[in-house]
C-alpha cells in the first residue's frame, strides 16, 4: 500500500481510520486461513509485504513463526500495530528493491511470504517487479489481489488472477488453489480473501512436494457472490462503455494463456487506452474499472432538485399571480388616471387654446404699444397745451373774479348810495315830481 503522493510521506488514503476498519476483520480471516496453509507448509519465518497494521503477521506468529517481518509504508501508525514495532519495516512498496531494503535489517529469505490485497494498490508498472521481489524472498507465497471491478480504496491496478499467475509462472512458480474452496462460504473469512487467495510455490523447491497435485494449475478466475452483489447493487461504473469488448478480449487472452501453459502476459487491449490522469481521461484504464457512481443517489438528488424547482416554481407562480393581480389593479388605476388626465388634458388644451388667443391678442396689443405710445405722447403734448391754456384761463378767471368783486363792491356802494338817496329828505320831497314825470313820460 502506498502513500497518495504527499510530500511528507503520509497517506491521504491509508490513514488511521482505514486500518481501524480492516484490522480486526483481517486478523479474524488470518486466524482462520493460516492454520490450513501451515498444515501443508509449516513456516518458522514469515514476511508480510503490505502488512498494514500487521494482522496476518500476528496470526502467523500465533501459529508458531519465530521470525517475522511486516513491510508497509511509513504512513502506518505505529500505535495501531498488532505486532511489536521492531517487527515493522517502513518501505515504499511502489518502488522495486524490497529485497535490498530487507537485507539491511535481516536475511531476506523466509519460509512463507504473504502479500494479500496489496498489488491492486500499486501502479501497473510495478506489477512485474513486485512479483520479482516476492519470489526472491521465499519459495512459498500466499498471494491475493483484487480482480477487475472489485472496487476498494486506492485500487489502481485490479487484475484477474491469471494475470498474476502468468508473472509467477515466468519466475518458475506454480499455483496451488488449496484455500478458496475451503473458505468460500466461511463467515469468518472476508469474501475478498476467499475469492482471491492463491498459493504460489517454486517448482524446483522442496516445499513444492508438500502441496496436493490435484490443486495445481486450476482455472483461477472466480467471482464471489458477495462481490457480484456488491457490484450489482452498489458499484455502477459510469465509464464502463469505453472498456466494452476490450475487457472480454483481455479476459479470454489471459485465461487462454494460463490454460495453455504460456509463461508470459499476452498483449492486453485495455492497456492501449491507459492513463495516469483521471481528470483528463476518465474513460481509460484503470479508471474504467475504478471510478464508480451512484445513479440512484444522483436520481434522488435530481428528484430532490426537481422537487425544489417545482416548489420554487409554485412559489414563483404564486408570486407571479400576486404580481399580476397587483399589476392588473395598477393598470386599472392607471387607466382611470389616464381617463382623468385625458379629460384634464382636454381642459388644458381648451385653456391652452384660449391662452393662445389671449397671447395673440396681447401680442397684437404689444405690437400696438409703440403706436399708442406715439398717440399718448401727442395727447400728452395736447394735454400739456390744454393744461397751459387752463392755467391761463384760471389766471384770467381769477382776474375776472377780482374785477367782479371790484364791480360788486362798486355796485354795493352805488346801491348804498341809492338807498341813501332814497332815504334822504330831498328824495322824498321830489318823489311827486318824479311820479308825474313817469306818468307823462318824462
Topology, pairings included?
Elements: H1 16-40, E1 45-49, H2 55-62, E2 67-72, E3 88-90, H3 98-103, E4 112-116, H4 127-137, E5 140-144, H5 161-170, E6 173-176, H6 180-183, H7 191-196, E7 198-202, H8 225-234, H9 246-259, H10 287-290, H11 295-423, H12 425-439
Parallel strand pairs: 1-2, 1-4, 2-3, 4-5
Antiparallel strand pairs: 5-7, 6-7
Helix pairs in contact: 1-2, 5-9
Give the helix level as a range of percent.
Answer: 40-55%
Q: Gap between N and C termini, in Å?
A: 187 Å
Number of helical runs? Answer: 12
CATH superfamily of the domain at 16-222: Vaccinia Virus protein VP39
Strand order of the largest sheet: 3-2-1-4-5-7-6
How much strand content do the residues show?
5-15%
- CATH topology of the domain at 16-222, which one? Rossmann fold
- Give me the strand/helix succession: HEHEEHEHEHEHHEHHHHH
Radius of gyration based on Cα positions: 66 Å
Averaged pLDDT: 90
Major pleated sheet? 7 strands, mixed
Structural class: alpha/beta
